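Predict the 3D structure for this chain.
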Amino acid sequence: MDEILNRMEEAARRLEAEARDTAARADRLGSALAGLKAGLARAESALAAAVARREALATAAPPARTRRARAGGGRAAGAV
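Done. Predicted structure below.
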């Protein structure tokens, strides 16, 4: 009877140790996931800013040189 009790206690200790290891692993994975989420949020923010800059440049008035060329002035019209 004592041997059965000893085996059960040893099995309980092993299970407790495994549960602690699993909990520690879950904590590390949770921390890693939080870091990945933060990195993704920064990347999304940077991408949104880049898209906004690109759209702003696309809708901005063209440089004066280009406007003159469209109006028929500048080197294209023979100006020096």
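The chain has one domain: 2-77.
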